[in-house]
Amino acid sequence: MSTHTVPSFARSFKAIRGAFIDFIGDPFYVSELESVRYIADGLMILEDGKIKEFGTYAALKDQYSDLAIVSYPDMLISPGFIDVHIHFPQAEMIAAYGEQLLGWLENYTFPTEGKFRDSAYSQQVAAIFLDELLRNGTTTALVLAAVYPESVDALFEEANRRNLRLIAGKVMMDRNAPDFLRDTAESSYQESKQLIEKWHKKRTTSLRSYTSLCPHFYR
Q1: Among 32, 80, 125, 209, which residue has the least CB neighbours within 10 Å?
Q2: Domains plus CATH for the chain?
Q3: pLDDT in tens, 23-45
């Protein structure tokens, strides 16, 4: 018999069973075996989308026997990946011809990023970009948008629709780029300030949006 009473709002609970791997230590300071935790048959209990309890299935099954369990056999469950540097406007030019850096920027990157002045275009690419992040297991990312504030707005709007945590901002460039991608210290300050006021840690976005400053080519 279960020793755990599931509250009447049990619909907010979810139980997931499978093989789990996560990282609980820094391999620079402890051995690799100490930094990795692997549970061949584990159980994760979620309450309102947050982890309430986690351990082996054998240890938790009786406590949560009243909950329906979703099982993922022959799969490995891990925490979401974190990408600490990625350029959202470059999504459509992945695998562009690998010239030297300046030639690559002038022939591919700058013309592509110039398209992100258009809000509708930014929204379209943002949806594809974020779906690809999620499809590959990335649930948090530090993202550089284009120099245009419209590109940041589109990115956060689409991220909020997916409940995805982002740290993002407009890039700041006043040199080594075409005129249509350059801003000034003053315009960059004002536009970044407005983006911070609009998006940074707003409760309407479940505290999953964080605005960052992204100096790129600056004096």
Answers
A1: 32
A2: 10-77 (2.30.40.10), 81-217 (3.20.20.140)
A3: 999 999 999 999 999 999 999 99
